[in-house]
TrEMBL record:
Its main location: cytoplasm. SUPFAM superfamilies: Thioredoxin-like. GO terms for biological process: cell redox homeostasis; hydrogen peroxide catabolic process; leukocyte activation; removal of superoxide radicals. InterPro entries: AhpC/TSA (IPR000866), Peroxiredoxin (IPR050217), Peroxiredoxin_AhpC-typ (IPR024706), Thioredoxin-like_sf (IPR036249), Thioredoxin_domain (IPR013766). Coiled coil: none annotated. It comes from Piliocolobus tephrosceles (Ugandan red Colobus). This is Peroxiredoxin-2.
């Protein structure tokens, strides 16, 4: 696993990534969430059966998190196009269906590396949740 640049007690490394938000592509930066808490969770790949239950659960509770001043962001090494295809696939067919949280594309794997969750031998992220306070 990559050691990463994220450190406990230090500001979280800022990032910029293309995300699928409400069915459209949007650039998302950690600094967009300044003053809020952020749950930044990583999962290995789209169209697998490893994490869809957790992703859907985060999506279903997104409004509860927002009421606490917290945003939820999901990240994998897949492209935004793959994320959109997975979201557009019905749940009964192995897709996610509509989501209330952004899914960020980390095709360069830099975000996964910066946060120390990259499985360098496989080029995918470990499935971890990271709580971050978004501030600079």
């Amino acid at each position: 696993m990559a050691s990463g640049n994220a450190r406990i007690g230090k500001p979280a490394p800022d990032f910029k990534a293309t995300a699928v938000v409400d069915g459209a592509f949007k650039e998302v930066k950690l600094s967009d969430y300044k003053g809020k808490y952020v749950v930044l969770f990583f999962y290995p790949l789209d169209f697998t059966f490893v994490c869809p239950t957790e992703i859907i659960a985060f999506s279903n509770r997104a409004e509860d998190f927002r009421k606490l001043g917290c945003e939820v962001l999901g990240v994998s090494v897949d492209s935004q196009f793959t994320h959109l295809a997975w979201i557009n696939t019905p749940r009964k067919e192995g897709g996610l269906g509509s989501l209330n949280i952004p899914l960020l594309a980390d095709v360069t794997r830099r975000l996964s590396e910066d946060y120390g969750v990259l499985k360098t031998d496989e080029g995918i992220a470990y499935s971890l949740s990271r709580w971050l306070e978004a501030w600079q």
